[in-house]
Amino acid sequence: MAERGESSEAVMLKKTEEEKLRKGKMIVGDESKAGYEEEGKKVKLVTSDGVTMEVEISIVKEMEIIQTFIGATDTDDSFIFPISNVSSHILNQIIELVKGEYDQELAKKLSHDELKEILVAANYLNMKTLFHFIATAIANVIQNKSVEFVRDFFGIVNDFTEEEEAELRKTNAWAFEGVDED
Amino acid sequence: MADMISSIPDDILLYILSFLPTKQVVATTVLSKRWNLLFRSVPSFDFSYRMDYDKNHIEDCYHFFHSVFSFLLSRDSNRSLHKFRLRCGSTFLMNTVGIKTSISTWIEEWIEYAVTGRNRVQHLDLNLDQKIVMPSMVFRCKTLVVLKLGYVTVKDISCVDLPLLKILHLNTVLFSEDVGLSLLLSGSPNVEDLEVKNINFDPSKVKFNRLPKLVRVRTLGHLFPLEIVQNVEDLIIYPLCPLKLGFDLENLVQLEINFVYRKEWLEVLEVLRHCPKLQNLVLGIFKSYRFELFQKNDEGAVLPGLQPIPQCISMYLKTCDFGIYEGSIDEIQFARYILQNAKYLRTMKIQICPESNVTDDKILYMIKELSSCMKSSNTCTLSIK
């Protein structure tokens, strides 16, 4: 995730454009034939819980960390890439999100733990679009929520004393006004 | 899980925080010691002023200024500020006679702060009041990727240099010169997404250059010349007067037409004739204060036999969304025309307009009518809600 500079909206714009181009090609061309030579090709990944999964190349291509190595092993389909930081459950969720074209409705069905695990996985696999998608989904969950909710969401242990916290709340009192305590 | 979050680097947390309103970002100072100073590095400024009618307006304004300054002064000034979003609304500058320092001067200063070079701001989103004049520096801020301006005045726009700008949204911006919009566009050669709403100028005094890179355009108002955006793929229009396209929109894939006064089906077909490759058509109503003026079509109106069939309908159209069904006969006729002639149609969605009092009988009649009509496409699904 080195380049997070580009404006997120512009990233999404680029993404939909690519999507459109891809679809456009499929429609103009003969639909019975696969538009890409690589279509249907799969890459083997072994997850942290030892499950070997065959993942479509179109999805693996979004994983920049692996993408770098695909070229080198192009001729050898039997190679299994270890992704030791991602469980099979989370990889399945990621595949669903990519296939569902990053629909916010899908994100709403994810638990808080899944959201956080996908975030960490997206960062590790260097999946830029997924990372942006899941970061905004998390922002939507915690938006306008109380301090207690955010602490609970991230599993943050409050290491302030009651007096310290009260003092901090006083310093920036404006930031705590009109927030629903939930 | 607590272990996992403690392993998340600060820059990821900062990225998530950058999507939140600044008020909430500042509230994260009390989460824990680790989070206490994090807010100072968040690369975003996002403040909205909402008028509180229970409070004294002047005190309320001061309170808002205090919040903004307290954030700006505690920021880590070595960190860039990628996003700057400020909304004040039209009530903000009302009844502020008692305030000594000019509010608009303060706001203009914040904007100048945002576009100073070291902040490297990419995303500037302002929705203010037409009393606020844009500092001319904004239009020379080379790092901008997204620029959204609503309800502001633009006076000095003699020099525009926005080479990275991709998204430009303008809503009710008052340009003091007729050529203002044209100058802004010619200094933004790489814009892909353009929104132009309620921008007035004298068309006889302005010449626009073509914008070949545009992909998506949304325009409200009749002055903006569509000729300059002939290459767009995605177009949203609100036709205020009869649309006469004397040219083809060769690349158009998606078209949304929002009727302003009445549903002009013949006009829609005329537009479709100029969109040879259109795949998705959305029909809606412009919901505004003028909604009560919206004219219902005659119950008895009949569309004449429409030949020839526009090429996009017979060869490319995949989806058609009616966001506006009100129960008139001409609507069914148009829907039937599409169903009968679109060979590759996959879905037709019809939404009953909630403001119209369409009876269940009418809905049943329509379902019967449309499901029994001959369809060119074998794979088309019809949904009526």
Question: Can you tell me about this structure?
Answer:
The complex is a heterodimer of chains A (about 180) and B (about 375). Chain A has a 3-stranded mixed beta sheet with strand order 2-1-3. In chain A, helix 4 crosses helix 6 and helix 6 runs antiparallel to helix 7 (about 130-140). Chain A has helices at about 10-30, 55-60, 65-70, 90-100, 105-110, 110-125, 130-140, 145-155, 160-170, and strands at about 40-45, 50-55, 80-85. Chain A contains 9 helices and 3 strands, in the order αββααβαααααα. Chain A is mainly alpha-helical. The two termini of chain A are about 35 Å apart. Mean pLDDT of chain A is about 80; it is low at about 1-5 and about 20-35. Chain A is elongated, with a radius of gyration of 21 Å. Chain B has about 375 residues and is an alpha/beta fold. Chain B has 2 domains: about 45-225, no CATH class; about 235-290 and about 305-385. Chain B is about 25% helix and about 20% strand. Chain B contains 11 helices and 15 strands. Chain B has helices at about 1-5, 10-15, 20-25, 35, 55-75, 105-115, 180-185, 265-270, 310-315, 330-340, 360-370; strands spanning about 45-50, 85, 125, 145-150, 155, 165-170, 175, 195, 215-220, 235-240, 255-260, 280-285, 320-325, 345-350, 380-385. In chain B, the strands form 2 sheets. Chain B has a 13-stranded parallel beta sheet with strand order 1-2-3-4-6-8-9-10-11-12-13-14-15, with helices on one face. In chain B, helix 5 links the parallel strand 1 (about 45-50) and strand 2. Chain B is globular. Chain B starts with a helix and ends with a strand. Chains A and B meet through helix 1, helix 6, helix 7, helix 8 and helix 9 of A and helix 1, helix 2, helix 3, helix 4 and helix 5 of B.
